[in-house]
Design a protein that fits this description.
This protein has about 525 residues and is α/β, with parallel strands linked by helices. The protein has helices at about 15-20, 35-45, 65-70, 100-115, 140-150, 170, 175-180, 180-185, 185-200, 205-225, 230-245, 255-275, 300-305, 340, 360-365, 390-395, 415-420, 465-470, 480-485, 500-510, 515-525, and strands at about 5-10, 25-30, 55, 75-80, 115-120, 130-135, 155-165, 280-285, 290-295, 310-320, 330-335, 380, 400-405. It has a 7-stranded mixed β-sheet, sandwiched between helices. Strands 6, 7, 8 and 9 form a 4-stranded antiparallel β-sheet that branches. It has a two-stranded antiparallel sheet with strand order 12-13. The longest helix has 22 residues, at about 255-275. The chain starts with a strand and ends with a helix.
Length: about 525
């Protein structure tokens, strides 16, 4: 029997590929908003002869009609982005990050489709009281209805920091909170002011920073002043412009700090407005502007939405257990309709006893003799005849005739020096201090930055290895897209599309297909 499967937040298709590889699962539709990832998915997952629907955006999408059109969806799988989970704002860069709307959309799909089973892949956070939703006009009626029906969704009062006393005069009279659009700078200029403010009091870094960026700073301020949206903002930007022109940098420090602080507050006010968060602004006992609202936990919301329809289990699985050459722990939630499970317990796959770990060397050693490209237009290289392969490498090559996406980041002289100095298994922290000077706080650099892979062990969690500057175990170059894909267990037949950075990001965001296959096999047992 073939089970019709919908993949939400599908990315490049790692989860779909694993379900497809296990057999008995027919991927009939997927949702993915990123166009590059969408192109990758469409070129790899759907069977050419089958009807398939690609959903551009899940927000407001009618899943009930999709279910009717397809003739019943059996399984919903997917990993809604986890970045949106608010943690009672601790003055971080973003206040809400979409107010977790995408997680809500995932469970709205479950509610409308009522599939036999669902799989949700995400970081381990669903069971934590720390991760919460704020009350929003978008779905407040639904929350009230759930409570009236007996669902337990207790509320907690939150006071979200918006701005410090320095800009309280302009915020307290309603100018920013009611007319925030008038005060928001264009994104490019906003970033320029923020970075200028970071450097303006640093006498060592400021000259070099201005040498590289002063022309662009002046250009962007000048463009804004041609048609200023707000007179106060314009006056402060004029003061900054005068200070830069006269080389009196100390005179503009107060202006840059004021504008940078104001813009941060404005973005948070914008998030509250766009997400229609219910609450009110007030001044706290320290003189800060705060927004008072109510929140409720993610897990309470999920339990209320699903009600008594499903039995669920959530556990952390490690991709390493299932033949992936990578230590990657993910929280998996498996839900099965109660009419199917008939009172029995359900489980997720366990760590196999005596399994053999696949190392980085096992996974990518054969690619060392294939030249890397540095642009996304890289042409596939046919496999060399007579290559000596590990079992894993042979498995990755099975349905392919060439090496695809073997592209890497081109590196400058400083990065090359670092590459040469770092040994296998070491990272940025092993460098001499003279090679750390481009980092403002080198001691706070993550252990995954400038990591040279150890060929004799599985890799750490693959993210965007281009941004992390991961280094090949033996060569002084960055890990390629294809090598990262191998570490994720994508077969060589799977081609990635889009810009180079997009390809790296698609690989890093994906669920390892071999982990997905193990989950799919587990689901199949209960169906």
């Amino acid at each position: 029997m073939s089970y019709k499967t919908l993949d939400l937040f599908a990315g490049a298709g790692g989860l779909s590929l694993g379900f497809k590889m296990s057999g008995n699962f027919d991927i009939v539709a997927a949702a993915e908003i990123n166009k590059n990832a969408q192109t990758t998915y469409l070129n790899n997952i759907p069977d050419k002869e089958s009807s398939f629907e690609m959903i551009d955006n899940v927000r407001g999408y009618d899943f009930a009609k999709l279910n009717e059109r397809i003739g019943g969806i059996d399984i919903v799988i997917g990993g809604p982005p986890c970045q949106g989970f608010s943690n009672a704002n601790r003055q971080k860069n973003h206040l809400i990050n979409m107010n977790n709307a995408l997680v809500k959309e995932y469970f709205r799909a479950i509610q409308e489709i009522k599939p036999k089973a669902f799989i949700m892949e995400n970081v381990k956070m669903l069971s934590s009281e720390k991760h919460r939703f704020f009350e929003s006009e978008f779905d407040n009626d639904q929350i009230i209805a759930l409570r009236n029906a007996g669902a337990k969704i207790p509320l907690q009062t939150e006071k979200l920091f918006i701005s410090p006393p320095e800009i309280i005069e302009i915020t307290s009279n309603g100018c920013l909170t009611e007319h925030w659009e008038e005060y928001v700078l264009p994104e490019k200029l906003r970033d320029i002011i923020r970075i200028l403010n970071k450097n303006i009091r640093n006498s060592k870094k400021l000259p070099n920073y201005l040498k590289k960026h002063e022309k662009e700073i002046i250009k962007q301020i000048t463009i804004y002043l041609e048609e200023p949206q707000n007179s106060e903002i314009a006056e402060r930007l004029n003061n900054i412009l005068d200070g830069l022109t006269a080389k009196k940098y100390e005179s503009i420090a107060e202006e840059t700090n004021y504008l940078a602080t104001m813009q941060k507050a404005l973005i948070e006010i914008k998030e509250l407005f766009v997400n229609r968060i219910i609450g009110s602004y007030l001044i706290d006992d320290r003189g800060n502007l705060v927004f008072e609202t109510n929140s409720y936990s993610v897990i309470d919301y999920i339990n209320a939405i699903l009600g008594d329809t499903y039995i669920q289990i959530g556990e952390v699985l490690n991709a390493r257990w299932f033949g992936v050459p990578q230590d990657r722990k993910r929280h998996i939630v498996f839900g099965l309709r109660k009419d199917i499970v008939a009172g029995k317990e359900i489980n997720l796959p366990k760590e196999p006893k005596g399994y053999q770990e696949i190392t980085v060397g096992d996974a990518i050693g054969d690619l060392i003799d294939y030249p890397v490209g540095f642009t996304s237009t890289y042409k596939p290289i046919p496999y060399h005849s007579g290559d000596k392969l590990t079992m894993y490498e042979a498995k990755m090559r099975r349905e392919s005739s060439s090496v695809k996406n073997h592209i890497a980041t081109s590196t400058r002289a400083t990065a090359q020096e670092r590459f040469a100095a770092i040994k296998q298994g070491e990272n940025f922290h092993s460098l001499d201090e003279s090679l750390k000077t481009t980092y403002s706080n080198p001691e706070r650099t993550q252990n995954t930055i400038y990591l040279r892979l150890d060929p004799n062990a599985p890799s750490g969690t693959v993210v965007n290895v281009r941004k992390s500057m991961w280094i090949h175990p033996e060569l002084n170059r960055a890990v390629s897209v294809r090598e990262a894909a191998r570490l994720q267990s994508f077969p060589d037949s799977f081609a990635f599309f889009g810009t180079k950075d997009s390809q790296y990001q698609q690989v890093g965001n994906a669920v390892p297909p071999l982990l997905a296959k193990a989950i799919a096999n587990n689901v199949k047992e209960y169906l």
